[in-house]
Hints:
This protein is mainly α. The protein is built from seven helices and four strands.
Amino acid sequence: MLVIPYPEISPVLFAWGPIAIRWYAIAYIAGLLIGWWVFAAMLKQASLWKNPPFNGKPPATTDDAGDLVVWATLGVLLGGRIGYILFYAIALCSVSPHDGVCAADHFPGSLATEPWKIFEVWKGGMSFHGAAIGVILAIVWFCRRRKLSILSIGDLVCAVQPIGQFFGRIANFVNGELWGKPSDAPWAMVFPRAGDVPRHPSQLYEAALEGIALFVILQIGIRVFRWQERPGLTSAVFLIGYAVFRYIVEFFREPDAPFLAGVSMGQALSLAFLIGGFVVLYFAYKKPDERAV
């Protein structure tokens, strides 16, 4: 069978003695920095904020944006790792080892004696849903301290988040992890750590849908349909859009962990995000004026 060869790329971009710079770390840094840059650029674009409820005043300053990225980074790291432990590691090892190594080899028992392992993101084991929850908590805390609109700031964060999602999924592809189910599609690939069966490059599907497509949808919504003038709407579309795209891709992706009745853990968590998106949508249309300040 003719398949596209997997472009084996070393996960380490540069190594000098014990110091190693990995593509995974570069992906996170690029996503955060580019997302922060786009966030700040949107704040500076006066045309986005000329109408009510903003009346020419952006919902935050560029200094706020710079400070928020620090807290968002902590939310991503802590939420992503804790979410992986809660959502995947325990469920994964209760069934069978994955990729030849049970997640319990690192989680959760060893954290009692080696708590620093929660920060070893270069070894893999990050949950998007956990990271999203961590960022939401960081936004709420930050906005309450700065007296900023939670919904408006959340909208801006959601508008740029797909940038990080794109880079993260590309890093998954480079690492040869989170591969898809067996396939006879002409673009199927044989991943080195997944046996000799051609599989869907599901990481690239997610990069395209959860990254590029979702970013374009949100930017068009803000710049053409002016979703930002109804605080919460952009966040709702992000949650719903991500949930739908992730649920679809899970049909092509090898499940990280089972859930119930043939539904993967990723699909179950996406359904929860879908419900959350509709809740935010309700509030966005219920009291837009009260939540714009």
